[in-house]
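P.,

For your records, the input lines for the assembly:
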Amino acid sequence: MDLIFRLNILSLKQIRYLFNPLLYIMELIFATNNKHKVEEVQALLVPEYKIISLQQLHCTEDIPETAETLEGNALIKARYVYQRFGKSCFADDTGLEVEALNNAPGVYSARYAGDDKDMQANRTKLLREMEGVIHRNARFRTVVALIHKNSEYLFEGQVNGVITTIARGEGGFGYDPIFIADGMEMTFAELDLSIKNSISHRARAINKLVSFLHQLP
Ligand code: IMP
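Structure tokens returned:
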């Protein structure tokens, strides 16, 4: 009885996987060299999906992110990897969009203060730009581009919040010490990582990707 109930709530794909795991594992390349991102995404997926990182494929090139939008950059990375390896793959791109700065730094978040991607310098520059600004609304936005069987799909996740006046907290990375999500009092860098990961822009975009993958035939 219990087994029948359990089978009812599994998808057809999951049932097939239970009977013959080797036949139904789908490999997906995640176009990133960030080990933490790979682990985060693999943990969200059911076992019939196996994430392969660029590192595992010995692909160490710095794929140029030359587009002027997050969507464009995510697609550039996914298309590059799809053409090179011919396998289903996805890529992500994230930006911090500050309303008072016309949504800057946005797609230029990593290089806001210069090409060396110095995050301390990026935060300092942003806080300086925001000195005396009352309206401090901002959002983190992640776009994930998936290419599967020659079709392209985009998934977006965002988290709204405000920019602080000083940096606070030791955790996280990037702009975390100067961003407080709506409904929170602590910056992303002060929050427990598991809390940040459960509400983050990236988790929201990845969850949409995961739901999409789960309903593929
Ligand atoms: P990427 O597209 O994930 O490489 O992110 C681009 C830039 O956005 C990074 O260099 C970070 O500065 C910033 N960023 C991305 N995700 C986060 C986050 O979760 N917290 C803080 N900063 C982030």
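Two observations worth noting. The chain has a mean pLDDT of 89. Helices lie at 2-8, 12-19, 35-44, 70-85, 119-129, 193-199, 201-214.

Regards
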